[in-house]
Write a structure and sequence with these properties.
The protein has 16 helices and 57 strands. By secondary structure, it is an alpha+beta fold. Among the domains are: about 10-215 and about 365-400, Immunoglobulin-like (Sandwich), CATH 2.60.40.1760; about 220-360, Sandwich (Jelly Rolls), CATH 2.60.120.380; about 755-960, Immunoglobulin-like (Sandwich), CATH 2.60.40.1180. The chain has an 8-stranded antiparallel sheet with strand order 2-3-4-5-30-16-15-13. Strand 38, helix 10 and strand 39 form a beta-alpha-beta unit. It is globular and about 80 Å long. The protein starts with 17 loop residues before the first strand and ends with a strand.
Length: about 950
């Protein structure tokens, strides 16, 4: 591999960052046109220093652009919905100090002296303000003859503010106030440049380059500290490598082996496989304060600072290392012990430890957004009365989320991988024979001939009849998703079709990078930023795969991940230049344009069939392409399971509603593989297998209450009947939650419809529904699933209880027993092996359907309508055909329910709308749950209630 460096040009007269801290300005002017209001800020000599443009989208959304000089970029945004219209419904006023834009709900004030922007509500309360004195900075940059700016934007932030969003990341951080996050795409890391505040506003940062929230500096090597080895000698720490009869001791001043180039610096001829490595000594800070550390690791890693564990043992596979962050307070001049214990994952493994020295607390706590390259500062300020309204504003700018096919809300079974079509069909057949609810099965990668990645052909020996395979899946009343990569071997016809148009990234080919498929093949990824390339990508799928009748598309490695474990700079070379410009500028948006290819392609040829895409990476706006994201190739560890809770919540708070994960984790510790093989040979359930089964049970329980319910991973196989025999409590629990998910399908599909009609969020951090309780700002391990359920995953091995905070004032109901618990307290609740703690909010109205094994098995002619008393409540049942875009043309039906707590009266409202195949009549069994009248949930029998025949007309029913 040849590693090249990226050359940047900084004109000498621009080396000084332009900071807008101008004072003593004497003139200012603004100009109002159909394109918005432009304000010129001049310096004390009357020379224009920079320009600000404000464009009102609606009463709650303003687009802010800023640039040195006068000329704003005319490039169309990839993030915003095409044809986004500007509003002219605002007023502009000016006085000696400010230009003010006023809408019905807010004001935007621009200081005429220094360009500082403030956003206020209609009552004059400040919602957000730039850093006092000036918050915008630009640093000219030139890459591949393209000029732009490195950009930095700073806002003030009060102490009680909390920040969420930014996509999904794996350090298990939730509230980002005072924290740092680097935004780039990586397997398990999905970066979305959207931040939402508990103060009910959001910032959509319209930039595609590598970006940072928080401290804009890059992490620095350990030699920033005064280092001492274990013998007290200054200048380095001690490193001891032990394994296979070898011992190597040396002094090292950095711990930096994080990519394929840097691992060459390990001791020569030392075999990492099976080894143990220890770095130990002391570090002495040069500044007092909070030092923020960044750990990258593959293998088993534990970190101690000052003889305290600061990173409890973590593990990740070598080909997909993980990142973790931690903070330590250090005093300048005080030596503190440091110890890192590492067991590499095989003979090629990765580890690094870096840090940032302290910055003043006020600076660390500001809202800071930095991007490596862009034309100008571009962001959308979005306000609302609550966080739901802010997310609605985000979707106004970036596009509506689609109503997913109904079958997508059912269970997904996947595996890395079904090696033959018989394996796939036998697996689905086993589900049907056992009566386990399932809607979707997945064909993962490598169904093609070994040397033909990208030609979309099936290996005829392993998949002799793809049409028969797809037809058989459909005959078993299921759907099938197929994996498609944007990757092509250079020998394939599809590669050649792209290449002859200049639509293939060339660096991997020039460097003769061979992939991991024996004996190693050369290929690369197509340039999805080219319009013609996107069209060709779909045309190839339409020709080779779509005719078989595949129902969904799995867009793997869409970061794009051309090669694992390379530096950021080399990644830029591998994925560029793009058709739009240098990859430095377009580093993060590949998955967005790649998803556009299939969504527009399929809707173009089959306009009434709902598209479903699952992709490993995402970007702002991807929800408009009927795309769900999964959290990538995470590890089979308890800490990974816990991290998915905060990852999923922040992803939902990034404005994209459909998210999922690999139940049980993807990359498997060897001890679990050995335990499963031992069981298959002997029938013995050893301690590791017990833990494996419990991990999968707890993950399955959690996953039943995320937007998409999906099992996937490497060996051991993830089908529940392979995880445990049917008499085992692990199997029985997983079966139960599949059944429960399907009984809740009327509720869940109604939530899915709300993502389109109300810009709703299914997986909801408590801060969304209980915004007046500061304690929930940092609760990342329990959440709401829709308006009714509070989900409390269990993420510790052997735990049979957990702590739960009960927000609100009306109390909560245990789902299973109906028992009532008071609000405003934390309590230890039972969490037996077979059950996850689930609670229902008073005022909830939950429609439960009949027992089914796939979504369309039968129409819900009987719906059990659970009413949880203690508060007034509303819910609307939504129904349509589940597969078409008829909902875009009002082909759907709704039935509203309301409950008045004082009178104990429920109203089943008049049905509105219609669609082909709609059920004309049904029965509701109305069941009231109160503290005095708890109801036990049973999936095997119908609870006692009041049965009502419903024909579409309003019915009022007293439950006294």
């Amino acid at each position: 591999m040849k590693l090249l460096s990226r050359q940047f040009f900084y004109p000498p007269f621009f080396l000084l960052i332009i900071l807008f801290l101008v004072t003593g300005c004497t003139t200012s002017s603004y100009k109002q046109t159909d394109e918005g209001v432009t304000i010129r800020i001049s310096d004390a000599n009357g020379i224009e220093a920079h320009s600000i443009r404000l464009q009102i989208i609606d009463d709650n959304i303003v687009h802010v652009s800023a640039i040195p000089g006068k000329r704003f970029s005319t490039e169309e945004s990839l993030i915003t919905v095409p044809g986004l219209k500007l509003s002219q419904a605002y007023e502009v006023t000016e006085d000696d100090t400010e230009v003010v834009l006023t809408t019905q709900t807010m004001q935007v004030q621009v200081n005429k002296q220094n360009g500082v922007i403030r956003f206020l509500d209609k009552n004059g309360l400040t919602l957000l303000a730039e850093k006092e004195g000036g918050g915008k900075s630009f640093n000219p940059i030139e890459v591949e003859d393209t000029q732009g700016y490195t950009l930095h934007q700073l806002f003030e932030s009060p102490d009680d503010e909390a920040f969420y969003g930014l996509g999904q990341h794996q350090s298990d951080e939730f509230n980002y106030k005072g924290k740092n996050e680097t935004l780039f795409q990586y397997n398990t890391k999905v970066s979305i440049p959207f931040i939402i505040s508990n103060k009910n506003y959001g910032i959509l940062w319209d930039n595609y380059s590598l970006s940072r929230f928080g401290d804009p500096r890059d992490y620095v090597q350990l030699d920033q500290f005064n280092l001492y080895d274990k013998n007290g000698e200054e200048g380095a720490i001690s490193a001891t490598y032990e394994g296979r009869g070898q011992t190597v001791k040396r002094r090292e001043s950095t711990l930096n082996y994080e990519d394929l180039v840097l691992i060459k610096n390990f001791p020569e001829r030392f075999d990492l496989n099976g080894s143990k490595v220890t770095w130990e000594g002391e570090i002495e800070a040069k500044k007092s304060g909070t030092h923020r550390f960044h750990l990258r690791y593959a293998g088993y890693t534990t970190v101690y600072v000052n003889n305290q564990v600061v990173v409890k043992e973590r593990w990740r596979t070598a080909w997909n290392p993980n990142d973790y962050k931690f903070s330590v307070h250090l005093e300048a001049g005080k030596r503190v012990p440091l110890r890192v214990e590492w067991e590499p994952d095989g003979g090629e493994s990765f580890i690094s430890l870096k840090a940032l020295d302290p910055v003043p607390e006020k600076d660390q706590n500001r809202l800071s957004l930095w991007s490596e390259m862009g034309n100008q500062i571009d962001y959308y300020f979005i306000r609302g009365e609550n966080m739901d309204e802010v997310i609605s504003g985000y979707r106004t700018v970036t596009g509506k989320s689609q109503v997913m096919p109904k079958w997508a809300m059912g269970f997904w079974q996947s595996r890395e991988r079904y090696r033959t079509q018989d394996e796939l069909l036998e697996t689905l057949r086993e589900f049907r024979e056992r009566g386990i609810p399932i809607d979707n099965i997945v064909q993962d990668w490598s169904y093609w001939p070994v040397d033909a990645w990208g030609d979309h052909e099936f290996d005829s020996e392993r998949f002799p009849d793809p049409q028969e395979m797809v037809d058989s899946v459909h005959a078993m009343n299921a759907r099938i998703m197929i994996s498609v990569w944007p990757k092509f071997y250079i020998t394939t016809n599809n590669y050649k079709a792209f290449d002859e148009n200049g639509w293939m990234y060339q660096q991997a080919v020039k460097d003769s990078i061979r992939d991991w498929i024996y004996p190693g093949y050369i290929g690369s990824f197509y340039d999805a930023y080219a319009v013609g390339a996107r069209k060709l990508f779909w045309e190839q799928l339409e020709e080779k795969l779509y005719p078989f009748g595949f129902d969904a598309w799995w867009m793997d490695a869409s970061e794009p991940n051309i090669r694992d474990n390379t530096s950021i700079e080399y990644r830029k070379l591998l994925q560029g230049p793009t058709a739009l410009g240098p990859s430095t500028k377009y580093f993060n948006a590949y998955s967005l344009v790649n998803a556009e290819s299939i969504y527009k392609g399929q809707r173009g040829v089959d306009p009434n069939k709902r598209v479903f895409l699952l992709t490993r990476s995402g970007f702002a706006g991807i929800q408009r392409y009927s795309t769900a994201i999964w959290s990538g190739d995470i590890g089979t560890r308890w800490e990974d399971m816990k991290a998915q809770i905060s990852a999923g919540l922040n992803f939902a708070l990034s404005g994209i509603p459909y998210w999922t994960m690999d139940i049980g984790g993807f990359c498997v510790e060897k001890r679990y593989e050995r335990a499963q093989r031992m069981y298959e040979m002997t029938g013995v359930e050893n301690e590791d297998l017990k833990e494996w089964r419990e991990l999968n049970v707890r993950w399955h329980q959690f996953a039943a209450f995320v937007p998409l319910f999906r099992s996937h991973g490497q060996f051991p196989y993830r089908e529940m009947f392979h995880i445990a025999p049917d008499h085992h409590p692990a199997y029985q629990s997983m079966f139960y939650y599949n059944q429960l998910r399907y009984r809740l399908m009327p509720y869940i599909y109604s939530l899915a419809s709300m993502t389109w009609f109300k810009d709703y969020t299914l997986m909801r951090a408590l801060v969304m529904d209980f915004p007046n309780e500061p304690v929930v700002n940092d609760i990342s391990d329990q959440y709401m699933f829709g308006p009714a359920f509070m989900v409390c995953p269990v993420y510790e091995y052997g735990a049979r209880s957990r702590e739960v905070y009960f927000p609100g004032t009306e109390g909560w109901y245990h789902l299973y027993s109906g028992r009532f618990v008071e609000s405003g307290q934390s309590a230890t609740v039972e969490a037996p092996y077979e059950r996850i703690p689930l609670f229902v909010r008073p005022g909830s109205i939950i429609p439960m359907g009949p027992e089914i094994t796939y979504c369309d098995e039968k129409q819900p002619a009987l719906i059990t309508l659970f009413i949880y008393g203690g508060r007034d409540g509303k819910f609307t049942l939504y129904e349509d055909d589940g597969i078409s875009y008829g909902y875009e043309k009002d082909h759907y039906a709704t039935i509203p329910f309301s409950y008045d707590n004082e009178s104990k009266t429920v109203v089943i409202g008049k049905r509105e709308g219609t669609f082909e195949g709609m059920l004309q009549e049904r029965v509701f069994n109305v069941v009231l749950v109160t503290p005095e009248q708890p109801v036990t949930l049973s999936l095997d029998s119908e609870p006692t209630g009041i049965w009502i025949n419903y024909t579409g007309e309003e019915i009022t029913l007293s439950l006294r």
